[in-house]
Amino acid sequence: MSVFLVLEQSGGKVKRVSWEALAAAHRLAPAQEITAVVIGAETEALAAEAAAKPVGKVVRVKHPLLKTYTADGFSLALHQLFQSQSPTHVVFPHTYQVRDYAPALACRMGQVLIGDVTGIEDGPIFTRQLLQGRLNGSYRHSGNGPCFVSVQAGAFRADSNIATPETHDNAASAPIELFTPALDPSQIRTKPGEPYRESAQTVDLGSAQRIVSVGRGIKGAENLPLVEALAGALGAELAASRPICDNGWLPMERQVGSSGQTVSPKLYLAVGISGAIQHLVGMKGSKTIVAINKDAEAPIFEVADYGIVGDLFQIVPALVEEIQKAKG
Ligand SMILES: Cc1cc2nc3c(=O)[nH]c(=O)nc-3n(C[C@H](O)[C@H](O)[C@H](O)COP(=O)(O)OP(=O)(O)OC[C@H]3O[C@@H](n4cnc5c(N)ncnc54)[C@H](O)[C@@H]3O)c2cc1C
């Protein structure tokens, strides 16, 4: 088995979703058979970051024309790498960038991309959700050539990538190789503009250990103090589903989900949140999920470890009172 993992970066650091994809790669092969790939014009720091993880080796794909991302540049460069090294599997995080270029890259190599994978069983058999998460589909790769797979954010736990003697012979650092693709400016059809600069985030939900997250069940901004009290009692960060942020009741940086932040706290307490797929992808990597919802059929209960069916306006104040009592 030869599994190549293509890492994505932001601001010179490997993105957390890339380490989730590494956890997925470990479901396919032992660390020694995994090659992490970093791609760009300056990739030394990224390669060093990757080499400290449980992987067999790191390949730096380096070329001045890869300074900024373009679908043509990335797919041409990786095509050349995979032609020369013949991986059995190529794993990506399922990001917007990967959605942009990976299908074209797979197609170039006569393959398809098994996209947005949420589970990997022996075989390997890949699971994808269909019809907004109502059905699970099982996919197996057949034929020659690499099997291209992208994995959904939150589906695999990044913190399972801790290098141990069992997973990594040389936990200090994996060897790093350089690969220089042959690229010509005429092959790159897009001219990237200034990258979009996200507003500085003052809330880092990604590293929060406890999160109380509120949804449309709260009915109005005037009721938010109720969940703020619960978050305060638990020493938790306050987060929200998208409608709460769309309505301006809480700032956008507190939104969890596919168009918000991905979180994996020890405790995620969802209050009045239905559990739409776009919300679940941002939080289902949480260790313990507790849901409060008056609808016993709400999809959030399918991912919850503990569920309370009832009216949040009664349950939340009672919970706060009990927590205060327990604290003394
Ligand atoms: C492209 C795209 C991207 C998206 N990105 C995101 C994203 O990043 N994050 C996100 O969250 N959503 C996202 N969405 C929206 C998503 O599809 C859902 O619409 C949204 O998550 C629903 O939020 P909600 O659960 O708060 O509201 P609802 O679906 O309206 O659910 C409210 C829940 O509260 C319960 N409830 C009502 N009253 C009470 C009460 N008194 N006590 C207890 N429970 C009560 C109801 O039973 C219900 O289950 C996205 C959608 C699209 C199309």
Features:
328 residues; alpha/beta; five-stranded parallel beta sheet; 9 helices; 16 strands; 28% helix; binds flavin-adenine dinucleotide
Report on the architecture of this protein.
This protein has 328 residues and is an alpha/beta fold. The protein has helices at 16-28, 44-51, 71-85, 96-108, 224-234, 242-246, 277-283, 300-303, 312-327, and strands at residues 3-6, 9-10, 13-14, 34-40, 57-62, 89-93, 113-121, 125-130, 135-139, 147-151, 176-179, 210-214, 237-240, 267-271, 288-293, 306-309. The protein has a nine-stranded mixed beta sheet with strand order 9-8-7-10-6-1-4-5-11, with helices on both faces. A five-stranded parallel beta sheet has the order 13-12-14-15-16. α7 (277-283) links the parallel β14 and β15. The N and C termini lie far apart (56 Å). The chain contains nine helices and 16 strands. The site of flavin-adenine dinucleotide has 27 residues, from α6, α7, β15 and α9.
